[in-house]
Amino acid sequence: MQTAKAAVMPDFHQPLEVRSYPLPDEIEAGAALVRVEMAGICGTDVHLWKGQLPIPRPIILGHETVGLIARLGEGVERDWTGAPLAEGDRVTWSAGRLCGLCYNCSVLRQPTRCLNRSAYGISFASDEPPHFSGGYAEYIYLRPGTAIFKLEDVSPEAVLGAGCALVTAIHGLERMQVGWGDKVVVQGSGPVGLAALAVAKSSGASETTVIGGPAERLELAREFGAEHTINIDEVPEPAARLNQVMRLTGGRGADAVIECVGIPTAVAEGLEMCRDGGKYLVLGHYGDAGTTPLNPHVITRKQLTVYGSWASEPRHMAAAIDFLRKQGERFPFDRLISHRFPLDQAFEALQTTARWSSSKSVIVP
Amino acid sequence: MQTAKAAVMPDFHQPLEVRSYPLPDEIEAGAALVRVEMAGICGTDVHLWKGQLPIPRPIILGHETVGLIARLGEGVERDWTGAPLAEGDRVTWSAGRLCGLCYNCSVLRQPTRCLNRSAYGISFASDEPPHFSGGYAEYIYLRPGTAIFKLEDVSPEAVLGAGCALVTAIHGLERMQVGWGDKVVVQGSGPVGLAALAVAKSSGASETTVIGGPAERLELAREFGAEHTINIDEVPEPAARLNQVMRLTGGRGADAVIECVGIPTAVAEGLEMCRDGGKYLVLGHYGDAGTTPLNPHVITRKQLTVYGSWASEPRHMAAAIDFLRKQGERFPFDRLISHRFPLDQAFEALQTTARWSSSKSVIVP
Amino acid sequence: MQTAKAAVMPDFHQPLEVRSYPLPDEIEAGAALVRVEMAGICGTDVHLWKGQLPIPRPIILGHETVGLIARLGEGVERDWTGAPLAEGDRVTWSAGRLCGLCYNCSVLRQPTRCLNRSAYGISFASDEPPHFSGGYAEYIYLRPGTAIFKLEDVSPEAVLGAGCALVTAIHGLERMQVGWGDKVVVQGSGPVGLAALAVAKSSGASETTVIGGPAERLELAREFGAEHTINIDEVPEPAARLNQVMRLTGGRGADAVIECVGIPTAVAEGLEMCRDGGKYLVLGHYGDAGTTPLNPHVITRKQLTVYGSWASEPRHMAAAIDFLRKQGERFPFDRLISHRFPLDQAFEALQTTARWSSSKSVIVP
Amino acid sequence: MQTAKAAVMPDFHQPLEVRSYPLPDEIEAGAALVRVEMAGICGTDVHLWKGQLPIPRPIILGHETVGLIARLGEGVERDWTGAPLAEGDRVTWSAGRLCGLCYNCSVLRQPTRCLNRSAYGISFASDEPPHFSGGYAEYIYLRPGTAIFKLEDVSPEAVLGAGCALVTAIHGLERMQVGWGDKVVVQGSGPVGLAALAVAKSSGASETTVIGGPAERLELAREFGAEHTINIDEVPEPAARLNQVMRLTGGRGADAVIECVGIPTAVAEGLEMCRDGGKYLVLGHYGDAGTTPLNPHVITRKQLTVYGSWASEPRHMAAAIDFLRKQGERFPFDRLISHRFPLDQAFEALQTTARWSSSKSVIVP
Predict the structure, then answer these.
(1) Does C252 touch chain B if contact means CB atoms closer than 8 Å?
(2) At C172, which helix (H) or strand (E)?
(3) Residue A329, Cβ neighbours under 10 Å: how many?
(4) Where are the beta strands (DSSP E) in chain B?
(5) Which residues are within 8 A (CB) of B137 and not within 5 positions of it... i.e. 6 or more apart?
(6) Best of C300, C309, C312, C313 to disrupt the D interface by mutation (most D CBs within 10 Å)?
(7) Cα separation of D284 and D269, whole Å?
(8) How many CB atoms are located within 10 Å of the residue C86 CB?
(9) Residue A244 contacts B where some CB pair is shorter than 8 Å
(10) pTM tops 0.90, yes or no
(11) d(Cα D166, Cα D168) in Å, to the nearest integer?
């Protein structure tokens, strides 16, 4: 019986440790075994480590992964877009698996809220077969029904630099359509903010302002095409930031504002930045960060529409890969990757992300 | 020079008093002089009297009015829908006048936010000619460009029972479309709540729940077709009300929730009542009632869309009159009128509304 | 081995004949065996009999069916809405089965165009087990994945009177939303036309005109709430019908026009009936009836939006049943059923429908 | 009394001739006199010359114009976007004037169908004062209510190279939104086709195919970013073109197809190029070019949505100018201008356009 290594989180708040598990002898029909090339560390992994979601333990974290197909189960002949699949192909996949048939999938048509949803790196304990269900490992076992995508002409760095931020942004901006010619404000310059900027710019936003920091991130935002940036270190007062946005929008406010911060106060601040009849997208609140004082009269008087969007569907991953392939030069997501760690330093990788001292860290097993 | 009487508010917080002003000698082209038959007291009038908006004084309040055309200016041959107009015709009109050409009207297409907006009963001081610019008076002078509507087969009681609540609800539910088959919760059983209920029911809502009080109002809600009512006096705990809504919606939450309360805490409560992918309309916050603690994560996780809608446009008035004419039996708005006052008791009428001790008070000059 | 009878179509254009097939010994997990109570004859069955779609033969037709559960496979404990299911329950089901995961289901979100779609009464030959896959039979075998709906407080007559016309109309009017207050024209007074009328009326249409015939159908349309009807026998000229519609809509044309005829010329006629900025729904062209001369300039100049909608999804069936339960008195679909036939007269039933001499025929095995 | 020259069309089918008219002595409040710098010849001018619309004669054609403000009427202090205006400023304007208050403007919200609409170069006879109401002249008199736009950092060549094609495309693609990531087919490579391509590309189209000719136009399409082109001279068979589109879209058809040809047969051809659930925009049929055989079943079975869009509103001109300023390098519309004529050769300019032997001709008075 062959074994392979994985960085395992024994419990919340505990250091990751490298363990060995047996690889599956047999690959079910519809499944695939993948040799991990590179796994991304997402900010969400830090929240998971802190116990902010009730996940099973021990667990192999990692929901952003690129690998090479080692073995294919029966019937897996094509990827999710119809491209032929073979052993050795480089692939990524949608971390969330959905059923397509439950009430939320088929009646409400909210597949991200699938009642049978499970996600690699989040839903599966590692002490039960097939063990390998997260990205921080040498191998990962993809169950039947996983949306697999063959990667051609796209580097692992681009895929992981974009990570789950890009699919989150694609989904969010599908719900709150940025209109052609819109003036757009992005609150936040982390991965989600930069991804939202890229999607907004390529959706026809005529002028974009990114509010965030530190300076290097804003520099990257400008490279991604932001016409204006506001550094929160330099402009720490919300009222002063609002003033700047008003000045940049002819005193009217932005057509669309996208929250990519995850801090509740940002929402009240951002609503004030919208023009009459404007749009606001709450995109950064995947996790529960508590309440903030908010005035509903602003929504009424300005006749705003406020959108929420959570996680993403496989079709957003398909769109993301296509986007990276075609517009990778205009939006160099690969440049977000700042740190690389071997598998046995997975805990350091996580800690680096937890200290927000990296743009994006990856594990190269 | 002929004179007529009006109930004038000399300043904020002061009793209304009856004054006489000269009627205009001449009616401008495009204008009309109307003999007031009946004028509604709106909850907004109470807020205006308390000084919550910076309006001119002295002023004749009253933005819900029905009257008979006394004199027509040159060129006023048809009402806003194209029906022929003559002296003696019974009419009402859209209180808000908009220009159709400013940036907000023609670019942003948010005519309720018209940069040149003015409104009868709100924008005009009574000590300047033409003096008569509010409903609490024997006459009112309609300036050129007012959207006038001839009333046929609709009683003044129905028009004023519906008042500005119905046009507000029609506008709001145009923005947040109630889907055919939706389960709808209405927060509030005042005039706006009942109007929202009527529009939701007639838009295809399959099941409606009204949360409010007192009991008589909920009784009226049931007559308007509400399948369920929750009396806030009997269920004072938000958590208990949420439980009831969840029970009534198969544990999923409502497809659409409409806030018609004007109290900020209702918004946080109502967002929790939405299903995944549901809709929420902030309709009751015409005025600024301050902030409330709100959790943005709810909007993201549930993938909600939250709408704001403010006041109404003339086309909503056209739709309201048509609705009252055709569906007046199903939705007997005339029955909301509970108190009638002569013009010299206008202040009592206002106080009755301020004490919320009436369903709807009107002045019959 | 137990057997049961079915009316089988041996080939196109051949009389149906009653045959016996063995009932399945075993019910797969997820499946169900149902004793047919009543099966509807749909106009589409006539088209199928004429060979207008390439379906397998021999076949048991019938895609509108109500029955009692005879046996339940393992794991079938609840119906599609979550209601508990037991043997003896009265049920109906969505004839079309979809996968939820193919490209058309999950990327394009067009589940009626599911790449793995199959439909009872249309897709399965009767000479292979489980044989019973259409409604014209004593039993029907529901494969795993069928969307089953328990019927309570709804009669088989209502369900089959509505038939696949109602779900088709619900789907169509989900795509082309009838706005609250819209003036609507329905072209056609057959089952689809009446169903579209019912959905439009209950969606807030303020005034409806049904164009069709014969007189009894238009009488039924008026009972369903149509304000106006135009009898094509009395007004055979398209120009005269257009004139009537213009007169009924103040010379402007209808806000929304719904084609429920299936005759191509109706489309060119109906587009002219729309107002500037109006909407048109091509709903009656499930089958291919060829081309018609059409002027694209009309679509441009009037700034129309034209919608197509094909078949329906399970969620439309859920909505239909809820609608029949709640609004069955306002829209008495059960009254459409005009003829009943025993199973051995299935061919006569089909011929009656083919001659359009019935409102709706059903088979009662 | 000062006079100026204009190229006048005495009647349909007659050569244009240069005439002199007196310039207005006085400029009304709200009006402006503009010295024409450059006027575009639009394909529509050819149709007008042929008598395809019932316009007054004699007339000065020209609805695409750039000029310098010679004199400003009282009250004209700012342009339509709020920028300060002074004599000597370079400006353009929206040829169509709308009222903002008629039924079509304010109820139906279809301002291009304004009941009081008039347009420079189309609606005004030149033998009545103020005479100068078209672009083919030394001066043009802009009546009160004209939406004037100050031009800064945009060349007259860019504005006229884009001409009314760009505003038409912006309006059309506002109605039929190109989704981010959509595969788009543009039928036609004339000015409207290239403009539609530019708007689609900048709206997030992931892959575009332009069908048209001749080769130089397709070359320009590729410079505007078209990934694929199909030359109708090389692929004259509709079936072969459909095959190519299917091959380029993975056998599924395009997400969105935009008709910019004006020939009715293109519409039937283009509908077949759409994917299931796709979108189709009829944009090239400003004029009435008659009927074509079309199969409504295609719209139903594919569940298409078909949009019409006619002319444009002032806000589209505002967006166009902003777009030319910001994205002029990516989409070099100025390069479309291929021929320049002095005013006394206006008829040759028109004939050159009539022979389709120019990309775009302009008059430089």
Answers:
(1) no
(2) helix C156-175
(3) 6
(4) 3-8, 17-22, 32-40, 65-72, 90-93, 96-97, 118-119, 139-142, 148-150, 183-187, 207-212, 228-231, 254-259, 274-282, 292-294, 305-308, 337-341, 360-363
(5) B4, B5, B6, B7, B36, B39, B60, B62, B343, B365
(6) C300
(7) 14
(8) 10
(9) no
(10) yes
(11) 5
Q: What pLDDT digit, counting tens, does each position of B159-178 carry?
A: 999 999 999 999 999 999 99
Going from the C-alpha of A194 to that of each of A210, A219, B170, B297, the distances in angstroms are: 9, 11, 39, 20
Contact: D106, B100; criterion CB under 8 Å: yes
Sheet holding D207-212, edge to edge: C228-231, C207-212, C183-187, C254-259, C274-282, C305-308, D305-308, D274-282, D254-259, D183-187, D207-212, D228-231
* Chain A: closest CA distance from residue B78 (Å): 32
Q: How far apart are CA A67 and CA A76, in angstroms?
A: 16
Q: Does B112 touch chain A (CB under 8 A)?
A: yes
User: What residues are paired with A5 via a beta bridge?
Assistant: A20
- Measured CA to CA in angstroms, residue A79 lies from A91, A112, A148, A327, D213 at distances of 9, 21, 5, 22, 37
pLDDT digits (tens, 9 = 90+) for D12-39: 999 999 999 999 999 999 999 999 999 9
Report the Cα D1 to chain-centroid distance in Å.
35
Cα torsion C263, D264, D219, D46 to 10°: value is: -160
CB pairs under 8 A between B and D: 32
Q: Provide the Cα torsion D48, D51, D55, D59; round to 10°.
A: 60
Contacts of A288 in chain B (CB under 8 A): 295, 297, 301
A296/chain B closest Cα distance in angstroms: 6
Interchain contact, C286 vs D294, CB within 8 Å: no
Interface check C115 vs D, CB under 8 A: no
- The answer, for D179 touching chain C at a CB cutoff of 8 Å, is no
Q: How far apart are CA B106 and CA B114, in angstroms?
A: 9
Tens-binned pLDDT, residue by residue, of chain C (365 aa): 699 999 999 999 999 999 999 999 999 999 999 999 999 999 889 989 999 888 999 999 999 999 999 999 999 999 999 999 999 999 999 999 989 988 999 999 999 999 999 999 999 999 999 999 999 999 999 999 999 999 999 999 999 999 999 999 999 999 999 999 999 999 999 999 999 999 999 999 999 999 999 999 999 999 999 999 999 999 999 999 999 999 999 999 999 999 999 999 999 999 999 999 999 999 999 888 899 999 999 999 999 999 999 999 999 999 999 999 999 999 999 999 999 999 999 999 999 998 876 679 999 99
CB contact under 8 A, C204 and B206: no
Name the residue among B290, B313, B286, B333 with its Cα closest to residue B45: B286
A326 CB near a chain D CB, below 8 Å? yes
Which residue stretches of chain A have pLDDT < 50?
A: none
pLDDT at residue D345, rounded to an integer = 97
Contact B180 C326 (CB under 8 A): no
Contact (CB<8Å) A181/D319: yes
- Sign of the torsion angle spanned by Cα atoms A130, A133, A139, A143: positive
Decide: C111 and C313 in contact? Cβ < 8 Å: yes
Contact A200, A224 (CB under 8 A): no
Those residues whose C-beta lies under 8 Å from the C-beta of residue C341, and which sit 6 or more positions away, are C348, C349, C352, C361, C362, C363, C364
With contacts defined as CB-CB under 8 Å, which chain D residues touch A203? 180, 203-204
Name the DSSP letter for residue D177. P
Pairing of strands D118-119, D139-142: unpaired
Q: Strand locations in chain C, DSSP E?
A: 3-8, 17-22, 32-40, 65-72, 90-93, 96-97, 118-119, 139-142, 148-150, 183-187, 207-212, 228-231, 254-259, 274-282, 292-294, 305-308, 339-341, 361-363
